[in-house]
Design goal:
461 residues; globular
Amino acid sequence: MTGAADVVREALSGSHRDYTTGNISRLIVLLAIPMVLEMLMESLFGIVDIYFVARLGPDAVATVMLSESALVLVFGVALGLSLATTALVARRIGEKDPEGAADGAVQSILIGLVVSAVTGVIGVVFAPHLLQIMGASREVIATGQHYTAVLLGGSLVIFLIFLINAIFRGAGDATLAMRTLWLANGINIILDPCLINGWGPFPHLGVMGAAVATTTGRAIGVAYQIHALTRGASRVRIHLRQIRLHVAVMTNLIRVSFTGMIQFLISTASWLALIRIASLFGTAAVAGYGLGIRIFMFVILPSWGLSNAAATLVGQNLGAGHPERSEQAVYRTGRYNMIYMLVLSVLFVGLAPQLAGFFTTDEAVLTIAVTLLRILSIGNICYAWGMVLVQAFNGAGDTRTPSVINFFCYWCLQIPLAWFLAMPMGLGPKGVFSSIPAAEAAMTITALVMFRRGAWKRMKI
């Protein structure tokens, strides 16, 4: 017990270990704990906003949900660039080249500044039109256009918090990324009710207050990140002389990040397509699908933390010239993730009604959500390995392979299969849901075959 407590304490306080040497199992845990907590904090932004905004009525809630949907493209670009950033920084750190890691970090931030300036202006100027495109009613547009304008106008802090945390993860400073989101969420939780309701000296902003609170929290988090990067708290330290355009590094980042964006958008579009097919069977099917997926995505956050740990270990060990150690890290992480997802399968089979019942009392919605969770549990073991393998490719800088795999397994298999099982085969929502574990199994098998071929070991970034 003492040994486990020491590992947890080191993970939370910040480990300074060299991730290219030593016990791989211990290193996975040291990286995974703060990465899991970081992801939990990121998911908390939307939960906190909905919690406080829900008291303002359905139009306010619709504003938040539609605005978050409009943010999907912003998140897609930021995530694609962050995948490339993590891979590049991890490779340079593994090569014992902190100067090169800092150069890559600067170029990533410069790209983020340019792209976020464009998306921010579009968000501020066209907020009402974006809500209209998303299907918002006149009442929702009137209520929420300022919320959308503030949220999208703050794209800068969204990009920076994503990118700088990607730098921290690639460097092995996962604790700094975790602390950033602890700070940002703490500010958001304090400011949300104050700005929404006009408590004390704060203005009464209504639903727009939630956007101001979230943007302010993220901005303070970014200030903390910049302090860590420039004052030596991170393994990557940026000096004033390094803030310059480096065309070769920037071009490399754009090349890798483009297929990272495609990878994210392909998977996101497939989930939206499944919602569209589920909508053919009524509102309860859509609500049940949405509820079940939210529960599923929340409880698998530890799996994403493990997968991100694998990405960092792959990148750093490739940089250090230890491809066999990278491979070992992936297989070991995959086994740990498989055990966790197997536990979730048992949980879904036995306690799905209780999990879904915590969020809804509608019998029709509850039945659909329970069915979805139990069907998803069939593919959990495959999904566990698939997540780790995909992040291993990304950590190596090979974002193209997962994009191609996602395209064929999600768009060419999952979506047609969902329609076929639901409509011609007459299985209804069960047919839609059954396509998910089938696609995940295909994705995992394909990814494993590609991984074992080893082309990722020769990737240059």
